[in-house]
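Ticket 4471: requesting a sanity check on a complex prediction with pyridoxal-5'-phosphate. Repro inputs:
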Amino acid sequence: MNVSQLKCSLCGALYAPDEVRYVCPKHGDIGLLDVLYDYEKIKSQVTTSDISKSTNFSIWRYWELLPIDNRSAVPPLRVGWTPFYSAKRLGKELMLHHLWLKDDGLNPTGSLKDRASAVVVAKAKELGVEVITAASSGNAGAALAGLSASGHIPAVVFVPHTAPEAKVAQLLIYGARVFLVKGTYDQAFELSLAASKKFGWYSRNTGYNPYTVEGKKTASLEICEHLALIKSKGSTSAWRAPDRIFVPVGDGNIITGIWKGMRDLQALGWIEKMPKLMGVQAEGAAACYNAWKEGTETITPVEAHTISDSISVGLPRDGTRAVRAVRETQGAYLTVTDEEVLEAMRKLAREEGVFAEPAGATGYAGLAKAVRENLVDQDEDIVVLVTGNGLKDIHAAVKAAGKASVIEPNLENIR
Ligand SMILES: Cc1ncc(COP(=O)(O)O)c(C=O)c1O
Ligand SMILES: [Zn+2]
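Returned C-alpha cells:
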C-alpha cells in the first residue's frame, strides 16, 4: 500500500496510517483527514499507459492509488468504470462544443456511493472488524448494504424515515439491519456515530471515515483516463483533465473526492491542469453555497427542504473541504430550484437517454443555469457528473414526466 500519512484538513497535523481510525483527535468529530500517498513510489510502480492497458474495468484498476493492502479484501461486486457519454444533443442545445456525461447511476446499487463503500468494505475486511455501520440519506446506505453483502460483513444502516421506498427496499433486500430514524439525515448521522462508538462498529459515515473520499476520487481518475482516450485517439501516455466538472453537493464528500483525485493526478504529473469544480446545491439545502458566497469555510447549518433527497443536508459533514475544493480550483457554487431539477431529469432522459434521480440530475441543472449566467465558455471541456439512477425515486420521476394515458384496447383510441 502506498499511503504515507493522514493529514488533518483543519490543523494540518500528520498521523501514521494506523495511528488514527477516523478523525484528528484535536477537534471532536470534525477534523476530517486527507489520505496522503508516496507519489514517487507510485510513479516507480506504474504508469498511465500500464493502467490504460488494464483489463480490470472497475475502480481497482487504480490499485496503486488506493489505500488497500490486500487484494483478497476487495468485495467482488463490480464498481466503477461507468459510461462516459459525449452529450451531443444537450451540448448543441446549450451551445457547448465539448460536453460529457459520466453516468454513475450505472454502478451496482445505482449510485456513485458504491465507489466509497467498496473501498470502506475492503478496509473493514483488512481491519478484521465484525460490523460496519453508516448513516445515509439512502444511497450511501444502499451502497454499503450491497457491498457488505458482496464482502460478507454485516451492515447496520440508519436512514431518515422519509427516505424513498426504493432505497429502503435496497437496504432490506441486501440484508442490512435497517433503522428508519424519525428525524432528519443529520440526526441519523449523529445516532449512527453514537452507535459506532458504543458498540464498536466500524463507521462508514461520510467524511468521518477518511476512505470514503478515496473511493469517490476514482470518478476523477476515470474521467481523465476517458478524456485522454477520446482526445488522443489511442495514445494514452498522458491523461487529460476537463476544464470544468459539475458536481451535486450535499455533505460535500463527492466534490471533495473529485478534487482529491485530481490532486493525486497532479502530484503524479499525470495531468497538466486542475479543472474548475462547480458545486451545485438545491436552493433549499445550500449551506456550502452560502459559505462560499460569504467567503468563509465555516459552515452554518440550514433547515433542508428539497425534492433531491440525497442532497437534503442541513449540516454538510464535509463542508469545509467542499468549499475549499471550489475556491482553490477557481470554480463556483450554484443553487437550483426543484423545478430546475425536474427539468434537468427530463432533459437528460429525453435528449441523451440517461435516467437520473433528482440529486443525480442536479449537476446538469447547475450547468444549464451556469450557461444562462454566462459562467462557462463554449469551447471548454465540460463534464457533468450524474450521481444516481432514476429508478431510485420513481415518485420524483413521475413528477417530472407526468402520467401515461389509459385506453380501451382498440385502434380508435390510438387515433
Ligand atoms: C445521487 C447523489 N448525488 C449526490 C450526492 C451528494 O454527495 P455528497 O453528500 O457527498 O455531497 C449524493 C449523496 O448522498 C447522492 O446520493
Ligand atoms: Zn487537526
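Notes from triage: DSSP finds 16 helices and 13 strands in the chain. Leaving this open until the requester confirms.
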